């Protein structure tokens, strides 16, 4: 199942001076990509690739960062060149910054050693035994320690949260915890549920500390663990925590539900997304449409498509093809497929032969040959150019409906376009004429087919033989059977069986039937016992009639 790309934002520190005082902590060579630090200390985690999504999550893009750096360099240059800069010096500000950055690095390392350890003793007990001055910065640095077990991170967070240090209880600290635990390669499902229980407890007591980014991260986490119902629970808690879902929320929730093919459960989430009109980018909308089509929810997928069209979003051609394919399967949604083809981007049309063919097939199957013919003519005029197979779909539907003039005109159109009607084309039109009792017309098509193709299929001969039998023109039927063998096409048992039965039941010609039976034996074919008995019964019936006639004369 598809998953939207996500990266988690690195927490923003209150001052850069504090970071500059920290020792570099390079990740181990085997560390996953998310641990690689931007500043050699902070993990870089991935969000949605769309810059618009990044802005929606409150994250600065690279372009914004570059702009900020340019402004900073310009400001610094102006200050450095200005001899009057001392006038604007703020002693109070400098003192505050110094206080905010007052983190004892030895204490940080001491706590890190405990959190990263594997001692059997309670982590809370060991933390209580050391002398440490808690602060938001210290907690943040400890939570970002590489290669720490998620369980230890959660336990340390709970211990710190219980302290009297108010600065620890912040959205930033919660976000750092969720970020660190979610990015761990050793995270188990049990620890993920424990993290969610902890976040719920925080939201219950102080919902203002939670935000959309934190909850989105949890939904993404449960999606990766293939626990979609837990992800749905997070989604349903947004209003309880005073948070508003964004486009990433809907996308991540639907993706999570897709890991277990929960199509019915995912649709209400899609409905809320449509109501909010806050849609993900075209690529992810295409994945949602594909997902719904896979779950046989073509109508629902079409609603998502309509909203995307209203937003003038360009969707991947693959998702449009899948949507048309799904809509063309049922008669009730065929009109939607037709409408969608009318709105196909021009750059997609030239490669959409197979998709147009599917809609034509659907129209023929729904006994709407004239609508299929209109779409076929549209392909002829503006593309994509139809092949002989597409013509055959419509010719078959017209022939079955007895609309032989239209069928013939389409066959002539095939020739005009420089294509060659195949044996199937001729056979279908012959069948249409034969069903209507127009055997002269059927025979003309048969003769044309023989001129154009050196060898016909057994079905072609079968159509003409059966048609003559139906009209009780047995001599012509036998002549076609003879031509069939002369052309190197061997009749099968079924062919002989039907002809023999017609001769016996309608013509009472058991002699010709016996000759055909001998031909079958020579060819190594076997006649059904019931048909053999029929020949014998007709023969006995004739002999009885002769006996009665002789008796009457005497």
**Uncertain parts:** 5-68, 70-100
Q: Helix/strand/pairing class, anyone?
A: mainly alpha
Average predicted confidence as pLDDT: 82
Separate helix tally:
30
Largest sheet geometry: none
**How many whole angstroms does the radius of gyration measure?**
40 Å
Give the helices and strands as they follow along the chain: HHHHHHHHHHHHHHHHHHHHHHHHHHHHHH
In a few lines, what is going on in this structure?
66% of the residues lie in helices and 0% in strands. It is mostly helical and 554 residues long. The radius of gyration is 40 Å and the shape is elongated.
Question: What report would you give on this structure?
Answer:
The model is unreliable at 5-68 and 70-100 (pLDDT under 50). This protein has helices at residues 16-20, 51-56, 62-81, 91-100, 105-115, 123-128, 136-143, 150-161, 171-182, 189-205, 212-224, 228-236, 247-258, 263-276, 282-294, 298-310, 317-327, 334-342, 346-349, 353-365, 369-382, 388-400, 404-416, 423-435, 439-452, 458-470, 474-486, 493-507, 510-522, 529-553. α8 (150-161) packs parallel to α10 (189-205), α12 packs antiparallel against α13 (247-258) and α23 (404-416) runs antiparallel to α24. The protein is built from 30 helices and no strands. The longest helix has 25 residues, at 529-553. It is mainly α.
List key phrases describing it:
554 residues, mainly alpha, 30 helices, elongated
């Amino acid at each position: 199942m598809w998953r939207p790309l996500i990266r988690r934002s690195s927490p923003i520190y209150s001052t850069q001076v504090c970071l500059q005082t920290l020792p570099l902590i390079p990740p181990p060579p085997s560390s996953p990509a998310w641990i690689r630090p931007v500043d050699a200390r902070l993990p870089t985690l991935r969000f949605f690739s769309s810059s618009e999504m990044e802005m929606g999550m409150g994250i600065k893009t690279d372009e914004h960062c570059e702009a900020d750096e340019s402004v900073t360099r310009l400001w610094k240059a102006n200050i450095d060149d200005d001899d009057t800069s001392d006038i604007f010096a703020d002693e109070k500000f400098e003192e505050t910054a110094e206080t905010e950055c007052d983190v004892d690095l030895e204490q940080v390392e001491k706590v890190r050693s405990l959190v990263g350890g594997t001692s059997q003793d309670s982590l809370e007990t060991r933390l209580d035994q050391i002398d440490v001055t808690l602060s938001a910065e210290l907690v943040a640095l400890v939570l970002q320690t590489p290669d720490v077990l998620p369980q230890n991170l959660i336990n340390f967070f709970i211990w710190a949260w219980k302290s009297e240090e108010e600065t620890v209880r912040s959205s930033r600290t919660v976000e750092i915890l969720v970020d660190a635990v979610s990015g761990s390669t050793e995270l188990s499902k049990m620890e993920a549920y424990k993290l969610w229980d902890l976040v719920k407890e925080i939201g219950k007591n102080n919902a203002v500390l939670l935000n959309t980014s934190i909850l989105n991260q949890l939904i993404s986490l449960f999606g990766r663990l293939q626990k979609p119902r837990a992800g749905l629970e997070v989604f349903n808690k947004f209003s309880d925590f005073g948070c508003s879902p964004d486009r990433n929320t809907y996308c991540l929730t639907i993706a999570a539900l897709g890991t277990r093919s929960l199509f019915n459960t995912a649709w209400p989430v899609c409905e809320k997304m449509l109501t909010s009109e806050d849609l993900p980018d075209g690529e992810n909308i295409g994945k949602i449409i594909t997902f719904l089509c896979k779950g046989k929810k073509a109508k629902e997928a079409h609603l998502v498509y309509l909203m995307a069209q209203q937003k003038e979003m360009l969707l991947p051609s693959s998702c449009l093809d899948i949507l048309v394919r799904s809509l063309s399967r049922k008669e009730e949604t065929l009109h939607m497929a037709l409408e969608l083809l009318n709105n196909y981007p021009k750059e997609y049309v030239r490669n959409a032969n197979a998709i147009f063919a599917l809609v034509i097939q659907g129209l023929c199957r729904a006994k709407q040959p004239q609508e299929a013919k209109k779409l076929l003519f549209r392909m002829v005029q503006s593309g994509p150019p139809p092949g002989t197979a597409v013509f055959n779909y419509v010719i078959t539907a017209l022939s079955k409906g007895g609309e032989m003039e239209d069928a013939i005109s389409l066959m002539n159109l095939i020739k005009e376009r420089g294509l060659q009607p195949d044996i199937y084309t001729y056979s279908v039109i012959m069948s249409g004429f034969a069903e209507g009792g127009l055997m002269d017309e059927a025979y003309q098509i048969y003769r044309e087919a023989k001129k154009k193709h050196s060898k016909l299929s057994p079905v072609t001969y079968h159509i003409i033989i059966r048609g003559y039998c139906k009209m009780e023109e047995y001599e012509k039927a036998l002549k076609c059977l003879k031509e069939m063998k002369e052309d190197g096409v061997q009749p099968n048992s079924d062919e002989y069986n039907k002809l023999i039965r017609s001769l016996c039941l309608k013509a009472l010609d058991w002699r010709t039937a016996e000759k055909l039976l001998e031909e079958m034996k020579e060819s190594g074919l076997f006649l059904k016992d019931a048909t053999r008995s029929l020949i014998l019964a007709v023969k006995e019936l004739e002999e009885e009639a002769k006996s009665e006639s002789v008796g009457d004369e005497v």
